[in-house]
Structure formats: structure tokens, C-alpha cells
């Protein structure tokens, strides 16, 4: 089916997700609860380097309606990150991509 996020709505992925339908995003998609605004503020205070498990979101089509997809990336040489895969379809509209460095805090 189709997944629709309205403005102000959020969805937190806690593992790999394969959507069998389209995603229409006017809200916020987080790849885990560590990239929500409250978690980012908590980590800025704690500055820990806990292990991170990256996730993949796969969908046939993505229609952006001004929403944001929040992804995690390691900038310290390991070249790993969350992944957004458009499988066989297309991305249309406007979607913001926000990246949070979860690697070395000195970068």
C-alpha cells in the first residue's frame, strides 16, 4: 500500500524497511530514534561513540511534498550510512535530506 506522511507527522524506522507501495512525504522520516531532534540534543551533551547499525529504506516511488528524510552517516573513513533506495521507480517533488554525523565527533 501507499505510505503517506502529512505535514507535522513523523515516522521512525528501527530496522530495514521495504515499502511495497509508494511513499508520499510531507513530514519527517528518521532512520532510527537516535536522529530525532531530542536524541541529537542529548548526544551533543553526552558525546558518546556508541556503535551504530545503519538501515535501508526501499520504496518503488518517493513523492516529496516538502518533507525531510533524516539519515546518519559516518564521516571518519568507514564510508557507511543509512540508505534510501528507489527501486525501479522515481523520486518526484521536493524532499529535504538531512545528514547527522554519527562517527568521530571531531569531524
TrEMBL record:
Its cellular-component GO annotations read: outer membrane
Segments spanning the bilayer are: none
Q: Which domain of life is it from?
A: Bacteria
Recorded hits in Pfam families, A to Z, give: AC_1
Q: Which InterPro entries match?
A: AC_1 (IPR043990), Autotransporter_pectin_lyase_C (IPR012332), OM_autotransptr_brl_dom (IPR006315), Pectin_lyase_fold/virulence (IPR011050)
Which residue intervals define the domain Autochaperone in the entry?
44-103
Q: Which SUPFAM superfamilies match?
A: Pectin lyase-like (SSF51126)
The identity of this protein, by name, is Autotransporter outer membrane beta-barrel domain-containing protein
Amino acid at each position: 500500500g501507499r505510505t503517506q506522511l502529512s505535514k507535522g507527522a513523523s515516522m521512525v524506522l528501527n530496522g530495514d524497511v521495504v515499502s511495497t507501495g509508494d511513499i508520499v512525504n510531507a513530514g519527517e522520516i528518521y532512520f532510527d530514534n537516535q536522529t530525532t531532534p531530542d536524541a541529537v540534543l542529548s548526544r551533543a551533551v553526552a558525546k558518546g561513540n556508541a556503535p551504530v547499525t545503519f538501515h535501508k529504506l526501499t520504496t518503488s516511488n518517493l513523492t516529496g511534498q516538502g518533507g525531510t528524510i533524516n539519515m546518519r552517516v559516518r564521516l571518519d573513513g568507514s564510508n557507511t550510512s543509512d540508505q534510501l533506495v528507489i527501486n525501479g521507480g522515481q523520486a518526484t517533488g521536493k524532499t529535504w535530506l538531512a545528514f547527522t554525523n554519527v562517527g568521530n565527533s571531531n569531524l
